[in-house]
Amino acid sequence: MNKTDFRTFAATLEDLARDIVQACRRAVRAIAVMPLPAMLACCVGLAFVISLLPLALFLFVLFLGIKVVAGAFIVDRRRTHREHYGKQ
Known about the structure:
The N and C termini lie far apart (about 65 Å). The chain is an all-alpha fold. About 95% of the residues lie in helices and about 0% in strands.
């Protein structure tokens, strides 16, 4: 990696860091002026996103994997069943 590539990469990282800090400041300002019921609703929504959404995604992937494995066994059983009757 030469120096010009590193400089452009560093500039990109600085822009990213600046944008993240700006978004955090905007969020802190928004939270500071929020009434308590709205803040409670935001906290409940954030808790939902942090806890239940990953659980739902994990269960989706788990059941999809079970479906693929079960489908592979069913296809294999049908194939061997077809070959068995085809040879007679």
